[in-house]
Structures are given as structure tokens and as C-alpha cells.
Amino acid sequence: MSPDRPINADVPVPGEPVPTAEGEPQPTAETKRPDPVAESPPAPPPGPRRRRRPRQPVPGALKGIAALVAVAILFIVVAVIGGSGGAKEDGSDSPAPTPAQSPADAGAADAETAEQLGYPAFATANTTRVGGSDPAANAAGDALATFPATTPAQRPAAVTLIGADDWAGGLAAAVLMAEPVRAPILISGSDELPEPTSAALSVLDPQGAPTTGGAASFAIGDVVTPDGAEATAVKAGSAAATAAAIARLRDRLFDSGPAHIILAPSGNPALAMPAAAWAARSGDPILFAAGDPLPKPTAAVLKRHDDVPVYVLGPSSAISSRAIRAIAQIGNEVHRVSGEDPVANAIAFARYADGDFGWNINDPGHGFVLARDDSPLDAAAAVPLSASGTWGPLLLTDRATSLPGPLREYFLDVKPGYTTNPTRAFYNHVWVIGDQEAIDVNQQAEVDELAELAKIGSAP
Fold first, then answer.
1. 309-365 confidence digits (pLDDT tens)
2. How is 342-404 classified by DSSP, letter by letter?
3. In sequence order, which residues have a C-beta less than 8 Å from that of residue 16 and are 6 or more positions away?
4. Which residues of 160-173 are buried (b: 16+ CB within 10 A; e: fewer)?
5. In 3D, which of 30, 38, 441, 41 has the Cα closest to residue 271?
6. Which residues pair with 265 in a beta bridge?
7. What is the extent of the structural domain holding 188?
8. Which of 77, 104, 188, 371 could make an S-S bridge to 378, C-beta 3.0–4.6 Å?
9. pTM for this model (two decimals)
């Protein structure tokens, strides 16, 4: 397999004509440091936020899963009985023939059966969906997927509770999912806990530990916390002020300064979303800026860590080169990681490497998390999946029905393959966040195909 070309670069995009000539090879991922003051292509203004209608809460979903299991067992029993049962040889007791089905009817029946069993909308060979109808349900599912809680050792010592409208606080709080704290994020409210959060807390049952400062929960802003459990409160304000307060808490709990700092744009949530996965994986805090001036809370944290390199996420239209120069004047080394839009920006961050900073995912054998770019709280909710299991970056899609072209090309570029022994190969796995209104089954199936291990020839 050529290192300059994915193994199936000629697979056409669904719905597009098959090219008649071989395309250019995929560009090699750039891993060198970008120019600290170089201008990046401007990002388009954020589009309108997608509204979702209320759906059934998590307890109902759990009942549905139990029902699916029962249906699956029933199908297996029927198949066994039907396969082993014997009509008499003379045919006298043979059942009456069933009416012939048209291909359309058969296809509809197959799709209905698949939906009843939960496949492929729940999982495929290479994807798993956390299919909540809102971030609160997704956060509960992500936390329980990471902390099954069947034994005390599988429970988190603490959780982080954020408000349903506090996407910036949620992204900044992702750093508390890193070692040694490992607090997954759940969604709370100012008056009561959402039902999925309450259900998850009853299972996770955090009790606090020395690594959490004794706290069973971290409350970001004015949110409800579980009764009778010790909580550490973090005062919320602007995006920059909240992130700075979380960075101070992080320094106290981690008992050491950060190796790197991520500066994300507070004016464009979709561009900031990928920072959460890295913060959870690395323990690097997230700070915020927008436009030219550095917010005072952000500058204060940078002055406290003036020897720590800063990585700016997003193009100059989101965080300007003037802001970068202001950081350099404080004394921090500065680098920019960016793409022209949220989808490309997330891919650039997944590819990026600079020493021990960055995912550097430019080859097969990794985990990924896929979410919609118009739901920034889902990025916060999904951070446990990037800090455990198959440990992978957050990628973004901007539509429900199909993969954006650049994301499809990226998955092709890191598609796994083997020559003789698939059991010794590298594999990719993708977590899909949200229900079918966010990312439908067609897009999930496309992701599964691109993540599938493929035979690429034979050994010499």
C-alpha cells in the first residue's frame, strides 16, 4: 500500500459520478508547527442552531433496549425451531405456502426487523451510537458507557455538572475527565436534575476521593447537585472567566501545572468543540478568546503559566493574529491549528502533531467520536469516550444524512487494511453521538463502510 494514497481512494462518493481518471494522491498531513502569526482562511459565520423536539428520556430508552433483547431472543428461538422442525417426508403436514413478497415488501420487512433489533441504528461492526435525543441523555449514555458501575472500581469518584446552556463551561470542564480526577460530565439545571442525569447518578453513585479533593461532584455555575454529597462549586461568568476558574481548579487537583494550553474561540462554538476531547485525553486546560483583545481572565492564567506553549484552535477570523501577538508578549510560545470551517478544523486538529501535543492521527488503528457541529454540549458530553476505550479525537459533521466530503476523504486516508491475517491488523472504531435527527442511519452506515478493515493484496 502506497503511503501517499489510501487503499480505496477510488471509491466514489455516493451519488456522484465515478471518475474516469486516477485522482491526485491525498496530501501528506502537515505535522510541522504553523507560523504563529500566519493568517488562516476565514471561517463562515455560524449558522442557525438546529432545534430538536423533545424525546423520551433515558429510562424509557433503557426499557426499549430490554425490549430489543427480548425481540432478539424471540427471533433466535423461532429460527432454531424453524430450522430443526421436520415436516413429514410425504408432505402431508407441510404448511401452506406463504404468498410471494415483492422485493419492495421484502426490503421493508428486513428494514423493520433490523430496526426492532437495534441495528444498524444502534451499532454496526465498526460504529456504536449513543443515541440520546438531547445532550443530557447523551451525557448520561457516554458516562455509563465509560463507567459501567457494576462494581465500585468501575464507578467514577466524582462527576462534573454543567448547565444546559453553558457550552463553554462544558468544554472547559472536559479537563476534569483527565487523570487523576476522571470526572465525566453530566447536564444539570438550575431547579432540578434532568431525568437522564438523575438516573445516571443513581447508577454511577460517586462518593468522592482524595484525587477529587473529597468532592463527589463539581458544580460549574448555579446548578443542582445531588443531595447529601459533597460538591465543589466553580463560579461561572463569561466563557473566559468560567474557563479560567476551571483552570485554577485543575491546577489544584492535579498538583502540577499543564504541559500545554488550548485557546479556543468563544465566539464560534463549533470551532471550539474539538478542544474538549483533547483536554480530557491530556489534562491540558482550555481557555477562551474572541477577536483581537485577550480577555483579562485568560491573560491572568497565561501569565501564571508563561512558560507553557499555547495552541490556538481556529482561523484568524475567530481568534486574530493580534491576539496571538499579545500572548507572545506575555512570554508563551504560540502555535495555530485551524481549518476553514468546523468540519475541516476538527480534521486539522485530529491530524496535528507538535512534539507531545496533538492527536497525530494520520494512519489506521484508532478510535474516533463523531458529533454534529451545531450541538457543542455533545462535545462536552462525549469526552469520556476520548479519554478511555479506543481514545480518539472528536470529528464533526454538518448534516444528518451523509458525510461531508472532507470527512469522507479523511476516513479513507486512515482506513485500515491487511494483506494475509486480519486478526493481526489495526482497526478503527467510531462512536456516533446523537439520535437519527442528528446523524441518521445512512451516514452511520457510510462511516461503518469507511472504517471497515479491507484486504489490500497478498503477501509476497
1. 999 999 999 999 999 999 999 999 999 999 999 999 999 999 999 999 999 999 999
2. HHHHHHHHHH--BTTBS----SSS-EEEEEETT-HHHHHHTHHHHSSTT---EEEES-SSS--
3. none
4. bbbbbebbbbbbbb
5. 41
6. 289
7. 123-455
8. 371
9. 0.76
